[in-house]
Design goal:
The longest helix has 18 residues. It is built from nine helices and eight strands. The strands form two sheets. A four-stranded parallel sheet has the order 2-1-3-4, sandwiched between helices. It has 234 residues and is an alpha/beta fold. The chain folds into two domains: 109 residues, 3-Layer(aba) Sandwich (Rossmann fold), CATH 3.40.50.1860; 115 residues, Rossmann fold (3-Layer(aba) Sandwich), CATH 3.40.50.
Length: 234
């Protein structure tokens, strides 16, 4: 049995257009920042997985996700996650291909979060791109439960545009916070019943604390899910 210090979270990372061998750029609070978690992480880039084709749901990426996840397990990962919530499209394929827990997206938290709140309360899902966010990503079959989920996206904002550049620049935290807070204000104005927020985008945890202070509501993200998963193992 490996020791606690050997147990690591395996992170499937998207292509960023950086030079081969260049370390991934990160901000405090991000999945790739060494101080974010109190356990080791291992990062592998999924070949060919760029923001635009993962968000679109390119099925041709499935073999690359599987191969990269298996490589992470070979390197010692005891759980697998990803740096893009839209990678939930590959959740089933990866989970069937490795023998460790797989949590590709914070969206996996939705069924549990809905049951934590009264029936009239709603959850806002903040996504990188709502134009590509279909019901197939959340798989909530009950129409009454689906009606409790409000989708808001930051498409068209500075962060959205920056993520499509090759190479992608270091994240502009102020711009991200502005994009996210503006989106939340819009959807809360239309849905005052919102009682919690779930970040689909794995980049948004960088501003999670600022958003919690602003909205005074629970904010969940992929960091939350990864900590739960690793706490059950380590």
């Amino acid at each position: 049995m490996p020791s606690q210090t050997q147990r690591a979270l395996g992170i499937l990372h998207l292509e960023r257009g950086l030079a081969p061998g260049a370390p991934p750029m990160s901000r405090p609070g991000s999945m790739l920042d060494s101080a974010t978690f109190d356990f080791p992480t291992i990062v592998e880039t999924v070949p060919g997985a760029w923001v635009e084709n993962v968000v679109r749901g390119d099925t041709a990426l499935e073999p690359a996700y599987i191969t990269t996840a298996r490589r992470l397990v070979e390197r010692g990962a005891v759980a697998i996650t990803s740096t893009c919530g839209f990678s939930i499209r590959y959740q089933e394929a990866v989970a069937m291909s490795v023998s460790v827990p797989v949590v590709m997206s914070s969206l996996l938290l939705l069924p549990a979060l809905l049951r934590q709140m009264p029936p009239h309360a709603k959850i806002a899902v903040l996504t990188y791109d709502s134009t590509h966010f279909g019901d197939n990503l959340i798989e909530i079959d009950d129409p009454a439960e689906r009606a409790r989920i409000v989708i808001g996206g930051v498409e068209g904002g500075k962060y959205w545009h920056d993520e499509l550049k090759r190479p992608a620049p270091l994240i502009d935290v102020a711009a991200m916070e502005s994009d996210v807070s503006d989106c939340i204000k819009r959807i809360r104005a239309s849905h005052p019943e919102i009682a919690a927020i779930l970040f689909e985008c794995a980049g948004f945890p960088i501003v999670a604390m600022a958003i919690r202070r602003m909205v005074k509501l629970p904010v969940y993200d992929i960091i939350s899910l990864c900590r739960i998963t690793m706490a059950s193992l380590v």
